[in-house]
Amino acid sequence: MKKLVYFAGMSCLIILISCNMNNNGNSNKNADVNEKFASYKETFIDKLWQLNPSFATEEGFHNYDSTIDIPSQEVMQQKLSIYKILQDSLHKFELQKLSDNNKTDFYLIENFFNSSKWYADTFKQWQWDPSGYNVGEGFDLIASRKDIPLNEKLIIISKRLAHVPAYFEAARENISNPTDIHTDLAINQNKGSIDVFNSIADSVKTSTLAGDDKKNLQTNLNNAIAAVNGYITFLTDTVKTDFKKNPPRSFRIGKELYERKFNYDIQSKYTAEEIYKIAEQHKNLLHQQMYELSTKLWSKYMGNAPQPKDSLALVQSVIDKIALNHCKKDSFVATIKRDIPNITKFINDHHLVYMDPKKPLVVRKTPDYMEGGGTGASINAPGPYDKYANTFYNVSPPTHLSDADAESFLREYNYYTLQILSIHEALPGHYVQLMHANMQPSIIKNVFGNTAMVEGWAVYGERMMIENGYGDNAPEMQLMYYKWNLRETLNTILDYSVHCLNMSEGDVMNLLMKEGFQEKTEATNKWKRVRQTQVQLDAYFTGSTEILALREDYKKALGDKYNLYDFNNKFLSYGSVPVKYISQMMMAELKK
Asked: Is the Cα torsion angle 73, 77, 79, 83 positive or negative in sign?
């Protein structure tokens, strides 16, 4: 019955959209096209949040915190129907009459519609990736809200909890021929989400909820936990058992799907194959630079030992010595916290980019429901509706690893590379970029943040810091930066080679460990990550390549008037949009 009521509501929504769009066009015939487009964007965003309440919560829009979008196929198709109506209305605007800023929003909205349909009807990750179903983060975000009283927050959580059983019922119905690795990831991360519910249970004890409210919350909480555990049991006892009779789907998506996904996700001026070939060339350049630097450092670290004839072996020997300079596994998080003020001071002293001191950055251990993705760190930044909420710098210390594996991990994240990690994830990387993105007045540019721009900026930030002498120009820091940049370059080579060229696990490990000088733990985690994701690993090299090209063009156009601080702030002012669009807007402004 609930499902019928929901679809009735969706039908009414379709009618409302049609009426709103038509009325807007008829009553404002003489209005400026950009004003009409602004009205369209407001309508679009309103409908987006109504249809995707979990997405709204992630972006800091809390009007729909009490509900969850049930991931059934019926609801999915209803969404696509509404998107089609909205897209038809979008196409009524004459693109050439829109401002450059609005043209970019037009492209982003159009890409959202096209990619949503492709993901639902062609890519169908909702069928073969069980890890796509997890409610932990949404509840954690709501539980972390400090803008409302505890009792009010718990009432919202209680209503949201009531939807969890239906959510996982739909998830189970959707799963068909999944991959093994995504099934394992789903099991582990959903186990971690139980911690979020346990934390909510602790909050209930300190609240003043009473009577039916408290009773309903406890009932809904128990049912939600049972639903999560039921999903885990389904994956463990049914899906994993079925793998013994029917081999799981391959995690490789193939060249055709890969190119399409690259086009929708990265939105680059390059194709996936083109950026793969550029990455191969950059790898060779980095090898040459690392060899020259390692030759100069040889006597300092290797004394009178004869230099290997193999250039890669020579570089590896020097890196192995430098990598011994690392923290202990139980001080990993503390070391990162210690580095943040020094990095902040360097950025301010060298006048590299504007940073808002009022935006809080919190270093924390990665929550369990986010673990298992093969990354050592990540950023959780607030959305445009909640700009001054905490930005969490999530760190995964190696405390769970054996002594041998922890030592391998810590050599990879030695004192030098640990600083580069924080430069990438926090300052002037993701934390600063996303801070600027939230100052962008266009909600569209915030909501549809481009992965290649976001990751590309972080990679660009690493280079910018080194270019300006970070680490006192120490050759060790320079060499470790080259190694780190090589890792980001190899991400593209690895991802394309695995999904399009069927690269084997053995060849992956050889690429990462021999040509990339990575520790075994890092290479193993990357092999896991490349099987869990597709195209995302392209974002680093693709985005940074386009940003550096733009900087050179911008610098050449301005000549003596060029200023790095101004370039960085100008670039970031456009929000998290594809670099190709930022390039068009920045260069066009110079001609005005």
From this structure: positive
What is the C-alpha separation between 93 and 84, in angstroms, rounded? 15
Peptide bond into 428 cis (omega under 30): yes
Q: pLDDT tens digit string along 409-442?
A: 999 999 999 999 999 999 999 999 999 999 888 9
The mean pLDDT of the chain is 93
Alpha-carbon distances, residue 156 vs 68, 389, 390 (angstroms) = 12, 19, 21
Closest C-alpha among 455, 439, 419 to residue 535? 455
Q: Is 391 helix (H, G, I), strand (E, B) or coil?
A: strand
What secondary structure letter does DSSP report for 393? E
CA nearest 374: which of 184, 108, 145?
184
What are the helix (H) ranges across 207-324? 211-233, 240-242, 255-266, 272-302, 311-322
Question: Is the pLDDT at 26 greater than 60, yes or no?
Answer: no
First and final CA of the chain: distance in angstroms?
A: 59
Q: Are 415 and 403 in contact (CB under 8 A)?
A: no
Q: Between the CA of residue 166 and those of 22, 23, 77, 431, what are the distances in Å?
A: 36, 37, 17, 36
Helix (H), strand (E), coil (C) string for 312-380: HHHHHHHHHHHCCCCCCHHHHHHHHHHHHHHHHHHHHHCCCCCCCCCCCEEEEECCHHHCCCCCCEEEE
DSSP state of 390: P
Which of 435, 115, 99, 113 minimizes the C-alpha distance to 266? Answer: 115
pLDDT tens for residues 115-134?
Answer: 999 999 999 999 999 999 99
